[in-house]
Amino acid sequence: MFRNLQPLVLASGSPRRREMLAELGLEFTVAVAAIAEVAGAGEGPADFARRLALEKAAAVAPGFPEAWVLGADTVVVLEDRILGKPADAGQAEAMLAALSGREHTVWTAFALCRGREQAVAAVSTRVWFAELDPALIRAYVATGEPLDKAGAYGVQGRGGALVAKIEGSVSNVIGLPLAEVTTALITHDIIVPS
């Protein structure tokens, strides 16, 4: 669907992000950035996600001076509380119980860096969970799927059965707002339709 005009590096270990870029026909290298994912005092979820996305891209960029580096970060927000990746099964169950029958917001930010050039954006999507029976929560957590995902669920996998409604970008919930990322890549002459 697209072809590269310039080299691209994905500063993320997320298999979902790799799959989404590959499905667009893009060529890219993967280089994972080791960044502490801790919100600063008073830092809102959109700012937190933008900062992490930029830090990931900026950490990888010096190793690829001729390439554009794409960093991304996804956070799940219930009311004012950021739900990161659960530390264990118990924490995953608690997160899912808190999300049960409620609306929450998923923010994914992405950053493009090459040298001193930077572009950063964040996209939000509203998600509503169905009412979840405790047995369903335990069964889902037992699959292991929630343990490496912000908010303890993956909408693209078994966790899709927990979601009653999505308002906005589904790819954003998965971890990369494809429409916005594609537009940014085209705008910076990194890719073109093939």
TrEMBL record:
<dbReference type="InterPro" id="IPR003697">
    <property type="entry name" value="Maf-like"/>
</dbReference>
<protein>
    <recommendedName>
        <fullName>dTTP/UTP pyrophosphatase</fullName>
        <ecNumber>3.6.1.9</ecNumber>
    </recommendedName>
</protein>
<dbReference type="GO" id="GO:0005737">
    <property type="term" value="C:cytoplasm"/>
</dbReference>
<keyword id="KW-0378">Hydrolase</keyword>
<dbReference type="GO" id="GO:0036218">
    <property type="term" value="F:dTTP diphosphatase activity"/>
</dbReference>
<keyword id="KW-0546">Nucleotide metabolism</keyword>
<dbReference type="Pfam" id="PF02545">
    <property type="entry name" value="Maf"/>
</dbReference>
<feature type="site" description="Important for substrate specificity">
    <location>
        <position position="16"/>
    </location>
</feature>
<comment type="function">
    <text>Nucleoside triphosphate pyrophosphatase that hydrolyzes dTTP and UTP. May have a dual role in cell division arrest and in preventing the incorporation of modified nucleotides into cellular nucleic acids.</text>
</comment>
<dbReference type="GO" id="GO:0009117">
    <property type="term" value="P:nucleotide metabolic process"/>
</dbReference>
<feature type="active site" description="Proton acceptor">
    <location>
        <position position="73"/>
    </location>
</feature>
<dbReference type="GO" id="GO:0036221">
    <property type="term" value="F:UTP diphosphatase activity"/>
</dbReference>
<comment type="similarity">
    <text>Belongs to the Maf family. YhdE subfamily.</text>
</comment>
<feature type="site" description="Important for substrate specificity">
    <location>
        <position position="74"/>
    </location>
</feature>
<feature type="site" description="Important for substrate specificity">
    <location>
        <position position="156"/>
    </location>
</feature>
<keyword id="KW-0963">Cytoplasm</keyword>
<dbReference type="InterPro" id="IPR029001">
    <property type="entry name" value="ITPase-like_fam"/>
</dbReference>
